[in-house]
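Reproducibility note. Readers wishing to regenerate the assembly model reported in the main text can use the exact inputs given here. Chain order matters: entities are listed in the order in which they were concatenated for prediction.
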Amino acid sequence: MEPIDLFKALSNETRLNILHWLKEPEKHFPKQQAHLPKEVSIKGGVCVGDIQEKAQASQSTVSHYLNMMQKAGLLESVRYGQWTYYRRNDELIRQLAEYLHTEI
Amino acid sequence: MEPIDLFKALSNETRLNILHWLKEPEKHFPKQQAHLPKEVSIKGGVCVGDIQEKAQASQSTVSHYLNMMQKAGLLESVRYGQWTYYRRNDELIRQLAEYLHTEI
DNA sequence: ATTATAAATCGAAAAAATTCGATATGTCAA
DNA sequence: TTGACATATCGAATTTTTTCGATTTATAAT
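Running the prediction on these inputs yields the following structure tokens for the assembly.
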């Protein structure tokens, strides 16, 4: 866990929104997992296009954000066909909250 | 509480260190409060010069950091004579940790 | 094979953060 | 009241982040 990279990733409204949306994907992305057959359902995962649409930023920007958040450990991704699904890494977010009131 | 400003303030190693040092001031600043008579002791407060010395950055940089952290709410300051003492705002740090695992 | 679609990567312009030395301001001591 | 010291503020150079459109890569459908 690299706290500084995590805090940097959290220092942006759009990225913070994405993380928040992914907390309740079915609520914020109604047409969730439209491309996925049930057998390969990725729990809590949303594809880049759906996130981009909601985030109101360019495709490259959103892709970059998601990549940065994944590198920091906040998200994890699974590719299915031409789609990449991103979901939260709740365990790391929990660790960060813990770090915040022990180390910091 | 402005989470983005808080995360920005935390996105820097020196600032993170300062916050950490101020968690146990007597441990990290041995000659603590040398200029203060006991009557006006500021619990947990350390003056800018002592922080600067430990942080190994220029005076203006450290002053700027402390100001930014105070604006974000992470620190509070008290002036005594020509010295400004900074200490942690533990309540806000607690709130941020809480926000992290409820909102985010 | 060709075409269409999703996502990643590239390259660059603009905006913001970092960091410093110099200067200003406020306070204390002689 | 002058000089010394602590801190804040200013102005600027450098670095980093933001953000985009264009291109590339990977996969799917015809």
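We highlight two features of this model. DSSP finds six helices and three strands in chain B. Chain B touches chain A through 20 residues (CB under 8 Å).
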